[in-house]
Amino acid sequence: MGLIVIDGADGGGQILRSALTLSMITQQPFQITNIRGKRSNPGLGRQHLTCITAAANVCNGKAKGADLKSRELIFYPGQLQPGEHHIDIGTAGSTVLVAQTLLPVLWSAGEPSTLHITGGTHNRNAPTADYFETVYLPAIQQLGIQVTVELVRHGFEPKGGGEIRVQTSGQWKPQPTNFLERGTLESQKILVSLHGLDESIVQREIQAAVQVLGWDMSMGQIVAVKKARGAGNVVAIDVRFSKISEQTIGIGVRGVLAETVARDAATAMVQYLNSDAVVGKRLADQLQLPLALIGTGQMRMLPASNHFKTNARVIEAFTGKRFASEEQDNNTVLATVVI
Q: I need a surface site. Which of 34, 131, 154, 205 has the fewest CB within 10 A?
């Protein structure tokens, strides 16, 4: 079987992760060139190498070019090995991104699997472990996918040392689903996690978020942090409807005001709530693959991100499935899987 060739210049790690996932599922080898070619630090980073190594271990695959800063990779998938896998990223890299690379292969493997992944659990530019549990999992469960996650220990940047435990039955019975309605509003919360920092940050962040959202201070809550190696702060604007949930996240960073972290997260939620979108930007990217594997489905979403567009090209290269987009009223797009 010939190699599927992918140009990685226009995207980031998402292109690589999606290619690894789809290669394992379809048993098609691939070559990715110009990896992260337009980034200021092109080539493979440590986080990407962890995903490659984990994928190779899970499917007895082989990788050529899996070196730090390498701009080209060839991956040959092998026989899938469901079961128990322990993965240590070795840095504060995202445990959730590693899990999302492996899960689509394992959730239909025919046997149960457990992933123990150590690293970062609350990272910038990645879904947090809380988002994974409260937004992503309920959405894919509507598609018939059986997955659970446990946050064993928080891991903040730059220390890491957190752990998640992800389990799947391996028995996927696809349930075609359209994400076209939010349903009734069930709750709205401002969730603040804090560890090893001044506790006054909590009230400052809640107050800043309230000013943007127009909510009441009583909607702010402190989230208990399980033992963590280093200091950390996360603001999550959490909204749950009967048919979908959404979280927008702010990660505290040294040198950035707590109020700025909270306002940015709140502004992103206002954009979502003021639109007619059902699926948030991050979730839209994450639902692409299972919808394509089912071969049918629609979702009403905010205008497509660059991640969505590059991910769509990778999915089409492996499966032949593509996403047609139709502009809707009130800053939304209807994305439909097309065979």
A: 34
